[in-house]
Amino acid sequence: MTTVMLVHGAWHQPSTWAKLETELHALGHATRTPALPSAGNRPTAGMHDDAAALAAELASIAGPVVLLGHSYGGIPISEAAAGAGNVDRLIYLAAYMPDKGQSMYTIHGIPDPEDTDGMFPLIDEPRTALYGDLPDAEAEQAVRELVNQTVRSFAEKAEAAAWRNIPSTYIITEQDKAIPPALQKQMAAQAAEIRRIPGGHSPFLSQPRRLAALINEIVRSTSPVDQWGV
Fold first, then answer.
1. For the chain, what is the domain count?
2. Is residue 229 in a domain?
């Protein structure tokens, strides 16, 4: 059985995947939702620490894995999967898709920070940017569950780009107010295939059944043979 590993974005925790996990389980998929150490109450970890945590989680799974990263989560999955032998496909969900030597700063064309200590400020108007298509009560609850995120995680540059060797799918969120669809399309051009889903930045909350069906379709079309191109 293929395991779908779901990697959360900045300021988030694994609990953000609960709705999507329920839908994926109903479709017969096993899931893993590791926590990234760069996010939390008082985190100090960087992106390389996140990638190491994901690599350890991947090593603990016996069978094949489809590895999905959301938003910032696309950066550490790109590094972690490069050293794993069991990842059959990468899915970038409204995610950063770095090449080797890129960080979130470089993807946005922002100069590297002089000081990488401390926390990166929360995105402006998170209710609108992250959860614009959620009902007010759900959006407000989601905002309350956000945690701190380190500057280091955004500043550290990827040491590998696994999508160059592992088949990848990019899912563009068409009304995204956090990562502009135009930037997503730029990054998606690097992927083996591009899919689209209407709505905002967090479809795992706003339309988990629809997203699960799309992931299911991608997983079912993926086989270990794809990775080796034979």
1. 1
2. no
Is residue 211 within 8 Å of residue 203, measured between CB atoms?
yes
Q: Is the entire prediction scored with pTM above 0.90?
A: yes
- Nearest partner of 2 among 61, 57, 51, 70, judged by Cα: 61
Phi and psi at 195, nearest 5°, equal -120, 165
The DSSP bridge pattern shows strands 3-7 and 65-70 to be parallel
Bridge partners of 197, per DSSP, are 173
Contact 148, 41 (CB under 8 A): yes
Q: Which residue has the tokens 């030597």?
A: 101
Type and span of the H or E element at 140: helix 136-144
Q: What token pair was written down for 5? A: 């590993």
- Looking at the predicted structure, is the pLDDT value of residue 165 above 90? yes
In the structure encoding, which two tokens stand for residue 214, read together?
A: 């799309």
pLDDT at 23 over 80: yes
Identity of residue 4 = V
Give the rounded distance of the alpha carbon of 229 from its chain centre. Answer: 25
Q: What range does the domain containing 177 cover?
A: 3-223
Integer Cα distance of 21 and 126 in angstroms: 23
149 part of a folded domain: yes
Assigned domain for 228 exists: no
Percent of the chain with pLDDT over 70: 97
Q: Does any domain span residue 8? A: yes
**CATH assignment at residue 105:** 3.40.50.1820
| Separation in Å, CA 89 to CA 3, 5, 61, 219 | 11, 11, 15, 8
